[in-house]
Amino acid sequence: MPTKGAVGAAISAGCAAFLLSAVFSAGSGAAEAQTPPEGETWWSPGSGREFPAILSYADERGIITTLNLKGPTDTRGHPFFTSLGTNGRACITCHQPADGMSVSAHDIQARWQATNGRDPLFAAIDGSNCPSLPQEERASHSLLLERGTFRVARPWPPVDASGKRIAPQFDIEVVRDPTGCNTSTVYGLHGKNPAVSVFRRPRPATNLKYLTAVGFVFEPKNGFPLPIDPESGRRMSGNLLADSRAGTLKLQLLDAMRTHLETEGDLDPAEIQRILDFEGQLYTAQGVDFVGGKLDDGGAHGGPETLALSKPGVLKSSRDVQWVEYSPWAASAATNPASATTDTPGSGDAQRLFRESVARGAAIFRERTFLISDSSGLNSMNFGNPTRDSCNFCHNMTRTGMDVAPGQVDLGTTNEPFADPAPDLPLFKLTCHAGEIPHPFLGATIYTHDPGFALTTGRCVDIGKITMQSMRGLAARAPYFSNGSARTLREVVEFYNRRYNIALTEQEKQDLTNLMSVL
Amino acid sequence: MTIRRSARLYVEGTVLLSLAAALCYGADAPTLKPVSFIACPIYRDTNQGRKSGCWLADDHESGVRYDIGGGRAKPQIGHEVLVEGVVANSPDVCGGALLAPVHTAVLETRCPAVMLPTENYPGRAFQVSAKSVLPPMDVERPLPPPPYESQQWVIQFNFQSDFLLYQYSEVILDAAARYIKVSGAKRIFVTGYAATKGMQVSGRTVSESNTLAKTRAESVAEALRRLGVDPRLMHVSWRNDPEPIASDGGLEEPSKRRVTIRSEL
Fold first, then answer.
1. Which of A427, A450, A473, B43 is most buried (most C-beta within 10 Å)?
2. How many angstroms separate the CA of residue B26 from the nearest CA in chain A?
3. Which of A307, A278, A275 is nearest to A210 (CA)?
4. Over 70: is that where the pLDDT of A2 sits?
């Protein structure tokens, strides 16, 4: 497995062949010896570098490519690339092109090493386990370094979009507090500004037309039409942020400015629009696989160009089949699938077998049904508990695998007893008030690492619900799930297999892993 | 014989349609007498693709095992279920006598979570009527044509629930909102109801809570508001224990769990 690193900077279509060659050299081990020069892989605020029209970097499985449709962009003074707050960060700090416009634990660790922990990425406010900890110590940033998670402090009790307090349906107690932040007299539940600190991965600032697309008027998980943004008159998306605390990109941006960048005062509306315009013109996807080769080759339509050209918010159907991009690779499936796992870069047989594996993974994703159970937001609708369906049931938006519906689901990534053990994360005990509708499958007392959507709504039925996210650019931005609990794509597959007792074979696990690695 | 009888029933009016249906079910069919009971639901994992499993429940009084999977909302294993339905004359594909129509409501009371294997029952593939599905937002639809008049819509709810059921409620709400807006309705009356008097089922009295009529009405009003209906035109009210209304299968109790939307020009 090649080490993630920069093997190519900005590319144009004309030098794609050169890049492919460079990447396959990396695949055979050359990249492991490379030390990415500062300013090439990592984008620091205020670097003044030009953000090109096409930008590619090597990742663990191949090349991640971002299209900047109106690029190149002069980043000098551009608010996406400029420190606007008091901690030295800009949007680009946590939305790195080499990491699929998110930020990977791998690059966070590299950044710690390169700067001895002095990069604004590690700002005390949320880049450490708690601002009250000694910031110069690596251990104080362990959740960011190991899980890639930032501290998100949600007000308690919850407040609505207008800042009005919501009366929660449950009480919250801190059972375990390894970071010390939830019991802190300054930052904790009983501090001056009571807050619940949870730890979450940053979501990619790219492919945003898919996140804001509203396919249907109704949000079936709560039964209501999606609310309308009074500013634009358009329906708000339910697919933004893990806990859906903001319904528009602008609201998300303002929230991020205030918290992650620690800005003071209001941002100029023109600057806000510049950020929204820039992130709205970015499309990111895996473009090349070390073994499978170019992902738009052999009749396939992988890569970011398809994302840029496609209509967002389309529900999968027999006409719009999920991951149809890779259907052409199934045409040659006739050989022994057991030999599909190989590290040989780019060779004929290895490439063919890998491509067939990806196509099988797509078919499994669509067609392999299993019993989905005890998942609030799904089984609590009128589908019943359990209900038989496939991955495609929830990951139903073509091109990105988000939920067209949209909405939040409790898979069990944060709620006990389904969540994996996480002694490094805080644990909360939530007790639903008498007379309130309890969590449909966990009852009135729930232990959780992150109450998720319930920190926005205050409702028991929403405890542990997390918004589904785009499945694009995964190979560049490990770890996975909102709390970084899956270190690899294989661990994502293993979680689902364990959670829903799917009984995937070794080959099926490999096929699904390969599929996710080329998205 | 069957043809002649059906023809005569047709000309004698719709009142006799239920009798005709009973005759079509055959001499041994248990007529259209509604069945209601509380039981622990059983999931049979027949696999006919997505959403295809069977739901069964045993009526302790009659000893009959029923197929209860055809309702708008499916049960949940581990929770008792209130079943209200009508026996249909249909092949047994799940291991129970089919109830259709049927209403099932998940109760808070726990019971063992029971799943059965397929046991050679074929089950049935999932189907949803096109009429129950709202098209995507980008599909252009013609507005209801004039002439316009005062209209009424009814939305039914599950027992002890104010949840707007997917692939049912939104179609009615959408139709109501579109008609209200295009017709220029001057007043809209949203009235919520709940059956709080209760009923005897399986030796127990089950009833809905006193606050439910209000929350049902408010849910519908909020949905209409989000669909662009002017809240200043809406008159929202609620009351308990209404008279039953005509509904599928003649099931009276489920028809009391409703919200009506009435528009006046």
1. A450
2. 32
3. A307
4. no
B92 and B147 fall within a common domain = no
Residues B169 and B258 in one domain: yes
Query: What residues in B contact A220, CB-CB < 8 Å?
Result: 166-167, 170
pLDDT for A35 beyond 60: no
E-strand ranges in chain B read 34-39, 42-44, 54-59, 64-67, 79-87, 97-110, 114-116, 151-156, 187-194, 199-201, 204-206, 234-240, 258-264
Contact B169 A223 (CB under 8 A): yes
CB-CB neighbors (< 8 A) of B43 in chain A: 384, 386
Residue A254 burial (C-beta neighbours within 10 Å; 0-12, 13-18, 19+)? middle
Does B124 reside within a domain?
no
Q: Give the distance, in angstroms, between the CA of residue A495 and the centroid of all CA atoms in the same chain.
A: 16
CATH code where residue B56 lies: 2.40.50
- What are the pLDDT digits (tens) for A394-435? 999 999 999 999 889 999 999 999 999 999 999 999 999 998
* Confidence check: pLDDT of A295 > 80: yes
Q: Which amino acid is at A199?
A: F
Q: Scan for tokens 């294993």, then name that residue.
A: B77
Tally of domains in chain B: 3
List the structure tokens of B132. 């129950």
How close B102 comes to chain A (CA, Å)? 14
For the ranges A304-308, B30-34, B132-136, the maximum mean pLDDT occurs at A304-308
B75 contacts in chain A (CB < 8 Å): 384-385
User: Distance of CA B152 to CAs A256, A432, B132, B144, B175, Å?
Assistant: 46, 38, 18, 15, 11
Q: Are strands B64-67 and B97-110 parallel, antiparallel or unpaired?
A: parallel
Q: Are A223 and A46 in contact (CB under 8 A)?
A: no
pLDDT higher than threshold 60 for residue A194 = yes
Which member of B53, B77, B174 has the closest CB to residue A388? B53
The yes/no answer to whether this complex scores an ipTM above 0.95 is no
Q: Are B43 and A386 inside 8 Å of each other by CB?
A: yes
Contact A384 B53 (CB under 8 A): yes
Q: Which of A216, A317, A388 to mutate to test the interface with B (most CBs of B within 10 A)?
A: A388
Which residue of chain A comes nearest to B219, CA vs CA? A224
